[in-house]
């Protein structure tokens, strides 16, 4: 076992790289990457970092030089031989050769594209412009770097034993959560915590704790590098960026209305089985489900993200029933701001009614709440989202207006076209 | 920092030696050893292990083969060159050349003498017979081995992460105690926990936590090896074995009555300053103080051991006053079954009235109470005491009849000669 406290104590070496591998990213980036590589090689997409927890002035906490060093280090990375072998030879979601030789070959030659970094009003403006298939790769490392640099800034002044006790307390907390989750067995949980993790070593420790603690109840990790090293499943499907870009590229209101289904039409040509999981909330779940073609209801499952999860699950069950599907054969993936009490509540609500999977993210890999003064290690809600595609502004509505993004006029247009009515605002904690 | 959980996980290697150095012992054994070497080279003393926590059947928990292996390993040890250099060159209690060249030369040639080991009624009978200067050296390693083998037996079935969380919780507990002690500053605390430690690595960790956490408030450790490696003070003075042996060798009632003072008369020829600390309770504190010659009252301090500590401190203050001494210049060392609440209580009682030092033992280096089911790691009260000297039975009365030892007829004789009246029994927890 790595002694995390010692390593953290040594963090102010010249540079202790945060992201050391192209595969230190979420699996869904590779799945989406392959679809983008095949279908949208010429599309240019701009991504940008947005810190929704604006009270935390990241530019005052994180040194811009250190941030540049870490981002520059990512630009020096390339896929290693062993990593490439793993992508080509490993079985993902029960299938061999998930990634085509031409996509892996492209990935072998891939280098992270340039970034634009500025300070503005206490926050960092960090923007990635270029071919979609390249810029999409920045989402996870950029977020992981910012989150870990923030952790390091807080940890820097602490003594060796203070650090060791900090990690002792955090480990005990994770383990007590794992012991609680065991009482809910059978339950299926995956680590979705790469982007907002406290640090790489910490995420790796959390995954190992889940392996030992949950046994069969552990589905895997979204982190490709950790999945490879720990020999567990790499998990994940797709994200809002697909419908957001498809929508931004639509040339008419009719194309815009169809765009979220076009995403699925493309996706099901590329992937099958448990990878056919709808993410319905990009422009409002209700309208998405109401207007969906019947073949969408035949997909394996649904991801409940921005909607209150029990309401979201009930909505999905009602919809499947209305479309002649048996909900007990369907899979619902819950993944929004989960912690164990919330997992237990959702599990109680749907146990025996649908198949469930839980994507446990920030509050698995970054629950240092209250462990240092002033909550300086409490996680923040930071995202890396599509801003525009081929020059057209991108929009996300979601089921929670707190999470909406895009120019106001475009948001209004999208709300009209996707028939989004009143929405319930919920705070975006993490 | 060593990753203790990993090391413990590897404990069932062929042999993972518990005691790896002649200096992995308490400093007072060397101080007493030098006095014995000079004055009693021909005296033969038998020591024996006694587990006062008889409900814990050590012979059922600890494998006799493993115990023999560990004891045999100790017999293979000899002082290393660096250790010898440290004894010759280091400053102890403000003094250089505390140990004379002839004693260090003897120690360089020293090998641990034979032991006798048998099972009896669920306990181990472990006895050391031979020259006092040799057998005295077994006390600490024998106790440390038994305590650590018991810990290892309990830890053996645990998973890697269970172990890591166990240590995370134990570390957090120690650190919270240290943080509490800081609130009592200025306070002076030493580690006295070698004999009943959870394990060597754990004691070493605890000492480092005290170094970082207490700063100037940390007096040092009784463990010579850790003092040498961590470059802190080695602490300790003398123990009950000196008056017990001197008393057992007395050839008349008058010699017996004088024997505890003869110990001090010899001691003050060998040691000065803060090493002149009376241990008055071997045959009852009240009688000892009442009959003590005036030069005893001129000593630097007193160790309060088996008596209720506030009562013991008040008794010492009254005695010093009666002998024309200023208690504010005197030192009281408290060392019996201390934990932080007890330290705070004693500190409140005597702050500003006497100088105080605290020898924190078992509940520093072995507080795993309640951390595994059935309290299987709760510390036990186990001692290694003088049984006889030159064939005469040894006796200890102390201020707590629970701790008395020796043949009943001899106990009665000692009580008469040392004028011991009614005593208050207190449970011997650790």
TrEMBL record, chains A, B:
GO biological process, one term: NAD+ biosynthetic process via the salvage pathway
Domain Nicotinate/nicotinamide phosphoribosyltransferase, first and last residues per copy: 187-421
GO cellular component, one term: cytosol
E.C. number: 6.3.4.21
Phosphohistidine: residues carrying this PTM: 240
Residue ranges of domain Nicotinate phosphoribosyltransferase N-terminal in the record: 23-147
Pathway(s) where this gene product acts: Cofactor biosynthesis; NAD(+) biosynthesis; nicotinate D-ribonucleotide from nicotinate: step 1/1
Post-translational modification, as annotated: Transiently phosphorylated on a His residue during the reaction cycle. Phosphorylation strongly increases the affinity for substrates and increases the rate of nicotinate D-ribonucleotide production. Dephosphorylation regenerates the low-affinity form of the enzyme, leading to product release.
Catalytic reactions on record: 5-phospho-alpha-D-ribose 1-diphosphate + nicotinate + ATP + H2O = nicotinate beta-D-ribonucleotide + ADP + phosphate + diphosphate
Annotated coiled-coil segments of the chain: none
Keywords for this protein: Glycosyltransferase, Ligase, Phosphoprotein, Pyridine nucleotide biosynthesis, Transferase
InterPro entries the UniProt entry points to: N/Namide_PRibTrfase, NAPRTase_N, Nic_PRibTrfase, Nic_PRibTrfase-Fam, Nicotinate_pribotase-like_C
One MF annotation (Gene Ontology) recorded for this entry: glycosyltransferase activity
Family: Belongs to the NAPRTase family.
Matching HAMAP family: NAPRTase
Functional description taken from the UniProt entry: Catalyzes the synthesis of beta-nicotinate D-ribonucleotide from nicotinate and 5-phospho-D-ribose 1-phosphate at the expense of ATP.
PANTHER family: NICOTINATE PHOSPHORIBOSYLTRANSFERASE
The protein, known as: Nicotinate phosphoribosyltransferase
């Amino acid at each position: 076992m790595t002694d995390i406290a010692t390593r953290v104590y040594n963090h102010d070496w010249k540079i202790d790289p945060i992201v050391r591998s192209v595969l230190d990213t979420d699996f869904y980036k590779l799945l989406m990457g392959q679809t983008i590589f095949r279908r949208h090689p010429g599309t240019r997409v701009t991504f940008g970092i947005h810190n929704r927890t604006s009270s935390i002035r990241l530019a005052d906490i994180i040194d811009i030089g250190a941030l540049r060093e870490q981002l520059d280090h990512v630009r020096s990375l390339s896929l290693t031989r062993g990593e490439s072998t793993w992508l080509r030879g490993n079985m993902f979601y029960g299938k061999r050769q998930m990634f085509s030789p031409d996509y892996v070959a492209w990935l072998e030659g891939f280098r992270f594209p340039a970034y634009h970094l500025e300070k503005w009003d206490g926050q960092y403006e960090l923007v990635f412009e270029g071919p979609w298939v390249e810029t999409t790769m920045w989402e996870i490392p950029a977020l992981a770097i910012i989150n870990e640099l923030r952790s390091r800034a807080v940890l820097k002044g602490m003594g060796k034993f203070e650090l060791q006790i900090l990690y002792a307390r955090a480990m005990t907390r994770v383990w007590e959560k794992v012991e609680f989750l065991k009482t809910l067995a059978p339950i299926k949980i995956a680590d979705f915590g790469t982007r907002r993790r406290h640090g790489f070593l910490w995420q790796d420790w959390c995954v190992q704790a889940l392996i030992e603690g949950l046994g069969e109840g552990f589905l895997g990790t979204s982190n490709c590098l950790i999945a490879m090293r720990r020999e567990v499943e790499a998990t994940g499907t797709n994200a809002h960026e697909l419908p957001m870009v498809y929508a931004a590229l639509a040339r008419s209101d009719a194309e815009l209305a169809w765009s979220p289904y076009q995403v699925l039409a493309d996706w099901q040509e590329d992937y099958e089985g448990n990878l056919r999981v709808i993410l319905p909330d990009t422009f409002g779940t209700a309208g998405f489900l109401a207007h969906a073609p019947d073949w969408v209801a035949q997909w394996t499952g649904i991801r409940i993200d921005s909607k209150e999860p029990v309401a979201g699950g009930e909505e999905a069950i009602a919809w499947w029933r209305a479309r002649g599907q048996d909900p007990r054969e369907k899979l619902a993936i819950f993944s929004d701001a989960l912690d164990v009490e919330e997992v237990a509540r959702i599990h109680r609500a749907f146990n025996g009614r649908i198949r469930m999977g839980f994507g446990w993210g920030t509050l698995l890999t970054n629950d240092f709440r209250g462990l240092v003064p002033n909550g300086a290690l409490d996680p923040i809600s930071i995202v890396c989202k599509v801003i525009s595609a081929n020059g057209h502004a991108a929009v996300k509505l979601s089921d929670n207006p707190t999470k909406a993004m895009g120019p106001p006029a475009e948001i209004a247009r999208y709300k009209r076209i996707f028939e989004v009515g009143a929405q319930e605002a919920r705070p975006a904690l993490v």
